[in-house]
Amino acid sequence: MTLHNLPNYITLARILLIPVYLYYFIQGNLAAAAFFFALSAITDFVDGFIARKYNLESKVGKLLDPLADKITIISILLVLIYLNIIPRMLSYVILAREIFIFLSGIITYIYGLNFINPSFIGKLSIALLYLAIALKLLNINYFGNLLFYIVIPINIYSAVDYSIKAYKRIFK
């Protein structure tokens, strides 16, 4: 393993963690699910930090990282909906945004364009979403619920921002 590939290996580890925390979710072991989900969330920030700090960004990483993000969020939201851990309407709004961003990324890629880099507001949205999910899993319900209601408008704003950027990139 070379240092150049380290961010990509970290991203692959995040993808491999998905079935692990989903398993614990389905088994009802929310503490273990929260632990592995938190580990996954940490790797999301670590891989990008290393790639940017050491100038190790790659084409594979630019494709793999957003794919891992979307698979992570979509899978976790589907489980949260299935287990009724968070209000369904919140899940549906966030899930619709994630699927929309995922499909927009695919369309952008099909047009031969680079993926749109996430904005600060998009990164903030995901960080708060990860935190809200972790709080709910740890039964810190008041703050978890509060954070979900904060995440929704930020999520919607970031989706609109992303849409405008995608539209401009495709039709420029």
Automatic annotation (TrEMBL):
> Where is this protein found?
Membrane
**Tree of life domain:** Bacteria
The way this protein sits in the membrane is described as: Multi-pass membrane protein
Q: Which residues form a coiled coil?
A: none
Could you tell me the keywords of this UniProt record?
Answer: Lipid biosynthesis, Lipid metabolism, Membrane, Phospholipid biosynthesis, Phospholipid metabolism, Transferase, Transmembrane, Transmembrane helix
Chief location: membrane
The positions making up the signal sequence are none
Q: Matching Pfam families, A to Z?
A: CDP-OH_P_transf (PF01066)
Query: Which PROSITE patterns does its entry note?
Result: CDP_ALCOHOL_P_TRANSF
User: Which cellular component, as a GO term, is one annotated location?
Assistant: membrane
One GO BP annotation is: phosphatidylglycerol biosynthetic process
**Broad class of enzyme this protein falls into:** transferase
Q: Where are the transmembrane segments?
A: 20-46, 67-86, 92-113, 146-164
- Which family is this protein grouped under? Belongs to the CDP-alcohol phosphatidyltransferase class-I family.
Function text: This protein catalyzes the committed step to the synthesis of the acidic phospholipids.
- Give the protein name, as stated in the record: CDP-diacylglycerol--glycerol-3-phosphate 3-phosphatidyltransferase
> What does UniProt list as this organism's lineage?
Bacteria, Bacillati, Bacillota, Clostridia, Halanaerobiales
